[in-house]
């Protein structure tokens, strides 16, 4: 008998009715919910289940799979982004006569550990005093305009961390942290402090009361931008003896924040900056600079795990901008331009697929994070990407490591399945609640005997049924995938 290749095998599978292969998701469709789903066996391409697999829907954070794949394709898992410090002037007996410049390198995961190392290296380079200013150079991307309502609103105020404005010089995901500890006795104010430093641009307004031990905790923290300062407006209460709470809020002015944070680290390292801080603008002309120090970030493979498991929108969109610049985009670069290039990448993956059903897909990406609601992907698109990565043997370990296994996940919504669900699925989640409710899940399955499967399920509300309960959607996806795992990947008729 002639053995069938992947495309032939799928053509044969297309004649098999999968109408009852995903019964819980079918039930949602009958209620007016839009669902796109496909489950395949990776090695032979056999379709195990499908439900409207070509229907393009809002993918939410499943978009990040494309950002991760594109980054691995271009740089590999060992890539490390570099942040530099240069000087604009001579150094004489430990004094820099001129400005010190922090040059953003577009590191998506630049945190305090790298800043501290960089500050120490400036001191080791022989600079103890800067008689000019500390400047931040964010021109790696240029000024990045906000294109989502979330980030535009965050320019004014925010109660979240995920909506931070984008900058090639951003630090700590462009978030500031406020810690709240109980006071000494009931009726006294709680102790409030910014971590790691109290900075001139950060302020606190309001107070939080300490209550009797065992009382419930109710705390609200809103960050507002007021005349260039980031004001944390606080209210509520915390019980005596309660644990310290930390609240991360996006910062409206990431470049100025990076300057103040780095200046504080320089002071800790023994470098005094006499002239304050500032930001270099796009059209500024600078004198010739000389290298002082540099630091490399953590490897891309490690950053992708943090980006995917914790669904970090800031990291994903910074990485998309990095990828666009590396792909030849002109600076200043915008998120829509990065999205256009990611769309080209996604369509190329479809065109190169061995699966007939992938060739007609028209994926559309407007960002690298999925925070933009104009993104559109079908289950066919996402499944084709998963198979593409599976066969990129150098990249696949880092790509797979970024997915979460329900038994070990910090994503609480994935917990609660049977043993097969808990241990034989590795996936990326996505969710939104506007303009309709969205839940998406995509990744890999392991069948008994070690066979690999790939799956993508996108669940969107519709005009008829705009809002589907998140846990209702999760339960349906879990039920149907558990059924396929229990059947060991046998397509049900």
UniProtKB/TrEMBL annotation:
User: What is the protein name for this chain?
Assistant: D-alanyl-D-alanine carboxypeptidase/D-alanyl-D-alanine-endopeptidase
Task: Please report which protein family the annotation says this sequence is part of.
Answer: Belongs to the peptidase S13 family.
Alphabetical UniProt keywords: Carboxypeptidase, Hydrolase, Protease
InterPro entries, per database record: Beta-lactam/transpept-like, Peptidase_S13
**Annotated Gene3D superfamilies:** D-Ala-D-Ala carboxypeptidase C, peptidase S13, DD-peptidase/beta-lactamase superfamily
Q: Name one GO biological process term.
A: proteolysis
- Name any one GO molecular function: serine-type carboxypeptidase activity
